[in-house]
Each structure stands twice: as C-alpha cells, then as structure tokens.
Amino acid sequence: MYAFTLDQPSTLADALAGTGNGAQPLAGGQTLIASLKQRLMQPGHLVDLGRIAELGGIRREGNEIVIGAMTRHQAVADSAEVRAAIPGLAALAGGIGDRQVRAMGTLGGSVANNDPAACYPSAVLGLGATVVTHRRQIAADDYFQGLYATALEPGELITAIRFPVPAKAAYAKFRQPASRFALVGVFVAQTAGGVRVAVTGAGNGVFRHAGLEQALSRSFTPEAVNGVAIDASELNGDLHASAEYRAQLIRVQTREAVARATGASA
Fold first, then answer.
1. Residue 194: pLDDT over 70
2. Count of structural domains within the chain
3. Which domain holds residue 249?
4. Using CA atoms, how far apart are residues 191 and 202, in angstroms rounded to an integer?
C-alpha cells in the first residue's frame, strides 16, 4: 500500500464535499482495495461511505423495492422484503462471491464499478430498475455504457436503486470457479413493459438480448429458448471459454433462469 488520506464521514453531505473535490469514494472495497494493493489505482484521497446510515436500508414503496447503495450483498439475500417481492434478486445476491465478499460488498459499489462479469448489473438491467444518485434518476437502459463505463458523472454518487416488482423473475449463472464471477449469467423478468433478458459475463458489459426477449414474450417457457440464435461474433473469448461456448451458455442459463422463474423443468 502507500500513503493516502482517508475520510469517514457520517452524512451524505460531508461525503459529497470530499468527492466533489476529486476524492475517490470507497464503498465495500471488494474491487478498490485489491486495486490499491496492486497499485492499479493510486488515489491520494479516499472517502469511506460505510458510516453513512442514509445510504443503507431496504424498503418497499408501492410496486418497487428500494435498496440503499451501501446495503451489503448478504443483507439483500437475507431480506424478507426482497425474498417476498423479487426472490430472484435475493437469490442472485446470495450467490455473489463467497461469505466474506457478501458481508462487505455493496449494491451501489458493484453497480458503480460495472464489472463486465458482475451479477448485480444483470438484475438492474433485467428488471428495468432506476439508479438514483444525489443529482438525478437514471433508467437502467441508459446507465450501463460498456466496459466499466456508466452514465455517472465525476463526483456523482449512487444513493439507491429502485427495482420494480416483476410478475416473475430469476437469475442463473455459470460461475468461473476461481473468481466466482459469472462466466455467463442471465437475469430474466416478466415486467409490466414486457419480458426482459439481461446477460452478464459474455461481452464487454451487461446487455439485453432482443431475440430471447421476443421468444419469451411469445411463450415464457424454457422450451421457447431453444430456437433462438445467439451470435458469438460479439461475445468474449478467453482462456476460460471461447465466444462460441459463451453463446451456448447464454442459451443454457436463460433456460435455467426461466425454469426457476416459472417452477418448470429446464
């Protein structure tokens, strides 16, 4: 490590004063701390958000579940409110990393980082959620902008995410055994605006798949996935899996997610 200044504010206003002056916000630290240790990032000033009570909590507002940005993964997984309204989201949170990661990692930190193999972005995009910052509200379809890229502006902090309660939803992932990130993960949801399918781990960022959405809009069954073409030309290929293998995994994980959402057999 190296020398840096660390602030630990207890209010959002104090945190914004620091980040507004160029300080690096620190949420759960599951990505940032590792980057600091490897000198991949070397900010001179950190603002720890962990003591700001107003950034935590889970509540239902009408037909939405509102989750504070600093809510830990394990809290989402254990929430009776989330389990009742969006069990697929609770299950997703319970499958992130290992026990230590779930105890420290946060929803807002994951979504702000936008790792291309992270699980939460698929839920945000798949459910058509809204990312709430201290300045504005950003629709999921406008928020994710590619590899580690988002619509957040410098100094802008996520305060909460609003998840519409779907008719049915579920997540399925094929995990990379060492990192436990998604080699391919698929979140499917029957929403008021139609079926949404969000894929993580397969490309340079989370994305929706129009062909799968159209097929599942006609028939929300695992079998509806079988005839959908998955183009491997725009998918990642690396030492863990070829692009063609990831294309097949998208189809398999989508079938599994629909099966979980409907209680059918994949």
1. yes
2. 2
3. 168-262
4. 23
User: Does residue 63 belong to any structural domain of this protein?
Assistant: no
pLDDT digits (tens, 9 = 90+) for 42-51: 878 888 999 9
Evaluate whether residue 153 is within a structural domain.
no
151 exposure class (CB count in 10 Å sphere: 0-12, 13-18, 19+): middle
Please compute the mean of the pLDDT values over residues 234-242 and round it to a whole number. 93
Provide the H-helix boundaries in the chain.
12-19, 32-37, 73-78, 80-85, 87-94, 99-104, 107-113, 120-126, 140-143, 210-218, 243-262
CA-CA distance, 107 to 111, in Å (whole number)?
Answer: 6
Pairing of strands 64-68, 58-61: antiparallel
Q: Tens of pLDDT along 155-189?
A: 999 999 999 999 999 999 999 888 888 999 999 99
- Element containing residue 52 per DSSP (H, E): none
Instruction: Flag whether 76 is in a domain.
Output: no
Which domain CATH number covers 199?
A: 3.30.390.50
Average confidence (pLDDT) over 212-228? 96
Hunting for tokens 């690096």 — which residue is that?
Answer: 24
Q: Is 197 a member of any domain? A: yes
The residues, ordered by sequence, that sit 6+ positions from 56 with a Cβ below 8 Å of its Cβ are: 68, 70, 71, 75
